[in-house]
Amino acid sequence: MTARRAALVFVAASLLAAWFVHTRFRSDLARATARAAQGSTVIDTRCGPIEFQQAGHGMPLLVVHGSGGGHDQGMAFARALTQHGIRVIAPSRFGYLRTPRPADASPQAQADAHVCLLDALGIPKAAVLGASAGAPSALQAALRHPDRISALVLVAPIAYHPDAAATPLPVAADATLVRLLGSDFLFWAGLHVARDAVFRWVLATPPERVHAATQAEQARVNTMADAILPVSLRAAGLRDDTGLGRRLGPAPLESLRLPTLVISARDDGFGTDAGARYTASRVRGAKFIGFDSGGHVWVGHDDEVRAAIVALLKAPAP
Question: Which domains does the chain have, with CATH numbers?
Answer without folding.
Answer: 37-169+234-314 (3.40.50.1820)
